Each structure stands twice: as C-alpha cells, then as structure tokens.
C-alpha cells in the first residue's frame, strides 16, 4: 500500500495529475483479472455472437445470441442466489416468446450496439441483410433497414452531433444508413473484397475506418466525394515490397480494428497473425512490434476492446484463439494472457467502472473476468464468501506425510 | 520411484514447476503408453499440490486434447487399446477432480461443463461415444428404414398389379397340359385290364405263375404328344405361356422374393411368393417333359388321329449310326492303292514297309501284342530313317529322298544337295533329321499341403503352395496347431548364425582393409538397429504393427521403380498396338 500512499500524497501536494492515482489503481486491478464466479451460461448449441456494453452508465450489457434472441443483463447486480447458476441478472429477453418471433432477425446477428448517447435505442445487424433499430422500452424494432447483403459489422459514431449514421459493412462496400430518415444514404466503394469491420473515429465524427478481406484498411471521410482519406500501407510506401503487397495494410484479411482513446491511432488485427498500429493523421505505420498473435477466425469479425488509460497505459484486449491477450496499446508489450475459454473467443467488452472484462466464446458461455483482491495468491476470490471455508482448504497443498 | 518424485516436489514449489514442464513434454509424446503413465503421475500430483493444479488448469485445454481426444484433428496415438483406456480414465479423473475441486477452481468447472455440454460426454456412463458418430448412425438407420418402407410399398403395388398375370400363366399352362395329356389315373385304368389279362398264364403262354413280367415304366417320364391340326392352337398357347413364364414371370417372382426377403416383408407375402414361384416352376417342369412330335400326316385329314391324341410309349427314334473307324495305314493294300496319288515323299516309307513285310519269322500274334505295348509316337522325319544304322546308308537314303523330292525339272531352281553331291549333306543336318526332340515338362502333381501358419484370427493359413507361402515364407511341416514340427524351426536361426558369422566384426575389418578405397560393410547398420531396440524401454513397439504382410507387399508393389517398370511395359504395349492399327495411316504416323 506504500505506493498508493505516495500517490495520495503526490496528489494532495499537486505534483501529479489527479487522474494518475485513478489510473494506477485501475491498472493494478486490470493486471489482476481472474475468472469470476459469475458467468452467463448458454445452453450449449447456442452462444453469444455479439455483445455491447452501454457507454453512458456502463451498466447494461446487451447480448445477441446465436439463437436469434437478444438479452439485456445488469452488470451492477450480481444476483448469485436467485438467478440460476450464478449468472448476471437478466433485465429482458427478446425473442423467447412466439409473438416476438416475427420481429426477430431471420439469421444470426453479426453485431449489436447501443445508441451511444442513450439506452433507449439499440441497433442490430444480421447476416440476413437487415439492420434493425430497436426501442428498448417497448422491446420491439422501431425501424428495419434492408441492405440485401450479408452484414458483417456495423457501427454508430460515438461522438457525432451532426449526423446519426450507421456504417454497415456489407459485401465489398460500406453502406451508410441514416437513423433519422431510416434509409441508406451513401455507399462507400473502394474495397475489392468483403468488408469485415467498420469503426467511426472517436476524434472526428466524419472519419470512418474499415478493414476488409482484400488485406486493406481504408480511412474514409464521408463528406468528401473522393471519400478515401488514406489507404494504409504496411510498408509505408516502400517499393521494395512485392507488387501484391503494395497498398495493403496486412497480408491477411483484416477482421478487427480499434481506435485509440483520442482517435489519433488505429490498431488493426488480421489473419496474418499480426497487429499494426497506424497514425490516423498521416496514415503511416508506426511499426510497433506486437509479436505474433494467433488469429484463426477467418471471414468473421473479431471484437477487440480497449482500456482507456491515456497515452501511457492504454491496454488492448485482443482475442486470440481460445485466449485473450492483454497488450500495451502503444508499446506492444505483452502484459497477460487470459485463458479460460474452451473455444475460440469471438468478442470481448471492458467495463471501465468495475474494471471487469466480459468475453464471449464461440460455443460455450460468456465469461466474466474480475480483478482479484491484491496479495491474495492463496485466498478466496473477492466475492466468494459463501464457499469460503471449504474452498480455501481445497486451495492448500495436500502432501501426505508418508511421501 | 513415484514416492521419490513426490518427496522432491514436496520440498519446493520450483520443483513442482519443473516437474510440470517435464510432464507436459512427456504428455506430447506420440505414444499412448507414455501418455498414459504421464497421466497417472499427473493424477498423483494434482491431488497434492495447489501450484500443480493451477499450472495444469492454465493449460487445461491442451491437457484435454492430449488425453481425452477433444480435438478431432489430433487423435490419440497408437496403440489403440491403451489410448482408449487413457481416454476413459482421464474422463473419470476429471469428473472426480471436478467433484472435489470444482468449487475452488473455476476453470476446472468450466472445463467439465465444456466436456459435458459441448463435447456431449456422458460422465455417468463412461463410454465416450462422440455425439456426431451416434447421430450419423441414427440418421443412417432411419434412412434405411425409410428406403425399406418405400421398396416394400412399391413391391406391394407391383404385386397387386401384375400378380394375376403370373397366376394366369401357370394356370394356363396347366390347363393346356391337361387338355393335351390324359391324366395319369386314366392311363393306369387303361393299362390295368391288359395286365390282368396277362396274369392268366394260358393266354400268355407261360407255364408258371412264378414268372414275373417287368414293365419298365421309367422311360414313360418323357411324354410324347403328336401334333395334329386339332391341338395346334393349344400347343401354341402352351408354348407362348411357357416362353413368357421362363423369360418374364419366373425372374419377376424371383426378384420380388429377393426384395421381400431383403427388406423384411411380412411373413404372408413371402410365403405367398414362394408358393407362386414353386407352382410356376413345377408347371414349367411339367411342360418341359412333354416332347412334341411333328406328325407328317397331320396335314392330311387322318380320321384316326383326329379323335384322340396319341400317347405312344417310349421308343428310340434316333439310332446312332455306327461310326466307321478309319483303317490303320499299315495295311499293305491301302498303301498300294494310295501309291498312285501320294507324292514322292511316301516312296521311302513304302520301301521300308515292304522290307518289314518281307522279313520272315514274325508271327502275327506276337506283332500284335508288341504293337499293343509299344508307345505311340506321332509321325516324324526321324521315323523315316530310324533303321539306318550306318551313316553312309542313311545319307544315301536322304539324298535319294531329297532328289526325288526336289526334282522339279527346272533349269535354275534345283535342290542344292543335287548339285553339290554327297558332301552337301552335313552331319548337323543329318543329326537334325535322325533325332527327335521331345519336350519334357514332367507330370502335374497337385499341391496337397497348405501353409498352416497360425493366423491372428485363430485359424491356420489355408494357402496351398508348392514351396513358399507369400505371407509366411517357406512352407514347412506343421502340426494341427500350426507349430512347426521337426528340425525345421531351427533352420532360420542357423541361417542367421551363418549370416552373423559372415558379419563377424574381425572378418569385416580384414575385408575392409583388403578392399581398395573406403568401403564399410554392414557394421554401421547393425549398430543403429541395436540402438533402436534399446530405446523402446519396455514400451510396445509401434512399428511392429506396421510390419504386416500387406505393408510388405505394398512396399514391393508400389515402389517407384516397379511402378515405372510396369507402366513402361503397358505403355510400350499400347504403343505397339496403336502402331499395328494405325501405323500405316499418315494421320497417326506423325504422332
């Protein structure tokens, strides 16, 4: 605790930024993430295909199931006793009743997102080529947009004040759908193969990034007629590279992208098992070495998430096969590896208020990773009071005297 | 040993870590026995050390893949029985661990749920049948049932539609036969009075009642029917029916029966089909027994024949002509007769014959008996001169023969021997004339004894071969259980000893020193073999199972050189055939 006290004193003296204390505590907790007792359990053939945590309160976790059901969980209440199997308490489920069936998507949902400014709306998109805008209070879709192409991912701008566009990655182009007019307004063409991921910049509300199976990552400005701002090049224009690699961000399909907190950097992850960090202003590769990280999921969006720790201590959570890698966003250093899933991890979400991580696997359940108590190597995890005596005894060594 | 390991691990957690890493390496070994014993050690340490538990659970997925075959792409290594055992025991262990430690170790619980939920392993019944396999089997079974149902429905419909045709056919044949042939009972009635008449001895002129008259009725089995204008339509109808029954109905009923039996039709249908089939076959048999007689007088209006069909008793209609045996050519008369038309070749032969005839003191009987015993040899040139003992005499005969033979009277085309005189006939030519080559191939003796080497299925090898079984080597005497009898089993070992003596290291060294250049003989290979054997350490040899007769044959049959050889041969044959066919065709000549 001495480190904490010095931080406190530094803060009171005014030598350090007050956020410094907050960040260091958070970081410490993140580095102690362990499997929590609670989890969201699915009946085996079903799984969670996408999920999102709302950004206003960081309280409600919305999950899109592979069985075309949508479930909303409250992460604040850990009602272990009443709800079965120690899972999160459910707020609502859409699609379990027969009369709701007609609202639901015809096929598995590819992505789901809360409206960034409000929990009254959420948006889902599915492989059946429709985007549905849902009214949370009525639990039924307010609007359905037909794209008529498989949608791999969609995104709503988290900072936009001027527009309310949904960017949807469908086939080899990006469709922009306006919530206000409930119609598609733009089509951004430029990719040569299926677009797997799209993300709005958190800095500039008109800037959009997209990653595709043609190995390219494009930055768009939706106001411009030309649209493409930068075509990210992994060799930074070095012509010695082979002709096929010219103008490509990776040598495999790009299935995950992530903006930094300030929007000045972009992290991309592709099936060439590499991560690249890009400067979004110049479109240059920063050549940070993240090492080799497995990426076995081809033709499928992969959800990375970010701990926003400023320029010094941002952490990216990168799903890699059955594990989740914790990487330093700016230096590429390996921090930890979270192993707990028995199938490929599809997406993960970080809860900044509780410093928890939610990760969804392909076949089994959603796991909740919560920080363990400090200096508790051999004691019980934080919220395990009811099983204290037996469990703690089980954690001890059991060498028989005869040996 | 295990106790010692536990003692070491008890001392310090670092040792536990080290032990874990070593065990992990061993677990990746491609040998089920190694994995099994490693798993046993892991089981011992798991219940004792907390650190070991956390380490193992961190890599629990890998552990499951290596022991429980959760990854279909990486099956457990051979031997199979041990792998199966390992799988079962590790599943049981996980269940046990979960019951005990599941509360404290979240990951263990998750793994257990994963196995139970996703991999569909039933822990109550420790028989890990993969869900997919079960499903596939079920689907196949249901599909088979559906197909059987469809087939039976089809069969039923077909039977409903066309059964009457079959029945009609057999009935028709039967009634035709009834019309053509009076029934057997009537026949008997007709004959009986005759027989009773014949019983009285006075009528037959027999003296005694003890005499028995045997009427052989066997030959009556083939019934003859005379064709008349009256029964022609009946006969034709019967013939038609017979033909259609043979060609159409019997095969059809047989097919029905086969499908009914195959797809498990109800008992009654099968019975019915069998009855119909037997009935049909019986009637057809009956029809076959009837012989038709073409009545030449049938055209003319013969009142006698019109009234009733004649059923004549058996007679032999075709008398076999006595085959004329050609007379043996030795008779003097025949040869003299033939003298006119035969070519000049025969002249020397005739001379010999005359000589034989003129020789006195040969009794005819003796000659006959001699001839009976003498071996028969086809006629050849050597017989022509067989009695010429002296070379000169022989030469003269030959010369005479040839002179006569080739005396064509042409100016240029004359026989060579004629121009060259006596010296022209060489000794070699004479030898070729006087000698006869008889190819000796020996008598065929059928192979009687089989290999009888014990097979893995408990039987004895039934292969019958002369010297060597392709699977078990040289055929030796074996008893009823397939164990070699006598001194034979020693034979291979002695041969091996001989080999070893040849590979004696001193001898080889001498040989190497004497031979020019760097020649190494055998010793290196020998060393390698020994090393391998030592490595096994009591584990079952995985390569032993690979050394089967099949693999050995595969090695020979599919090795590149033999494939190349065979394909070359086939190619050349093809090319030759093509050339023969199309070689003259300019279109193909270019290719």
TrEMBL record, chain A:
Top-level taxonomic group: Eukaryota
Alphabetical list of Pfam families matching this protein: WD40
GO BP field: proteasome-mediated ubiquitin-dependent protein catabolic process; protein polyubiquitination; transcription-coupled nucleotide-excision repair
Any one GO CC term of the record: Cul4A-RING E3 ubiquitin ligase complex
Keyword Repeat recorded: yes
InterPro entries: Rad28/ERCC8/Ckn1/ATCSA-1, WD40/YVTN_repeat-like_dom_sf, WD40_PAC1, WD40_repeat_CS, WD40_repeat_dom_sf, WD40_rpt
WD repeats: 102-144, 188-230, 247-288, 338-370
Keywords, sorted A to Z: DNA damage, DNA repair, Repeat, WD repeat
SMART domains: WD40
Name of protein: Cockayne syndrome 1 homolog
From TrEMBL, chain B:
GO molecular function, one term: RNA polymerase II complex binding
Major localisation: nucleus
A single BP term in Gene Ontology: response to UV
Top-level taxon: Eukaryota
Entry-linked InterPro entries: UVSSA, UVSSA_C, UVSSA_N_a-solenoid_rpt
Region annotation Disordered: where it falls in the sequence: 323-348, 513-544
Subcellular location: Chromosome
Residue span(s) of domain UV-stimulated scaffold protein A C-terminal: 373-485
Keywords annotated in UniProt: Chromosome, Coiled coil, DNA damage, DNA repair, Metal-binding, Zinc, Zinc-finger
A Pfam family matched in the record: UVSSA_N
GO cellular component: chromosome
Presence of keyword Zinc-finger: yes
Family to which the UniProt record says this protein belongs: Belongs to the UVSSA family.
Protein name as it appears in the record: UV-stimulated scaffold protein A
Species name: Ciona intestinalis
Lineage: Eukaryota, Metazoa, Chordata, Tunicata, Ascidiacea
